[in-house]
Amino acid sequence: MTDEIKTPVIPIVQAEDAKTAVLTAKALQKGGLNMIEVVLRTDAALTCLEAISQELPDVIVGAGTVLNAGQADEVARRGAKFIVSPGLDDGVVNSAKANDLPIFPGVVTPSEVQRAANMGLSTVKFFPASLAGGVPMLKALSAVFRNMQFMPTGGVSEANLADYLALPSVVACGGSWLTPKDEIAAGNFGAVTKLAEEALQIASNTRS
Ligand code: 3PG
Rounded to the nearest whole angstrom, what is the distance from the C-alpha of residue 164 to the centroid of ligand 1? Predict the structure, then answer.
């Protein structure tokens, strides 16, 4: 299991049908983003995950909002290449490890980061980032847990992406701002591509 993340931004896809999910993933890929998290928050989420996995082999598709070990096993069967969870759960972590998939569990507090580190994890999701203290909180956690990498998610947008990415401990930011529901409902996938391109531009300005 390697949990190396090679992209500065991981967009969230929350779709009601597989066709829309694939079109959204294609639009993100066109904009330069090829690591995508499909959240298990719609009835069609597993079908969406499977469709992206089968139709877009160059996209690294993972599953988010994975809440228990059973779901972790199921998303592994459906082609997930990584697992994201809002919290730190033994069952989810153990299932991800058993399926040889990277797991990025959600943490907020020092105790949770410490627990994740002692479970052998090297990358965690900091969620909900903006409500949990944002950049100052991440700086404080990073000063203590010097080997931990963070993926802030929750309230990340074009307005604060650079602030998060400027922290050396931030491996990538996750978020739904790249997949606006209204644009997708209107079939405006060009807007998704543009947002992806803009995010990558921000990342390259910040990290160059
Ligand atoms: C998640 O699923 O990780 C969060 O809901 C994403 O938060 P955002 O919608 O504020 O980006």
Answer: 15
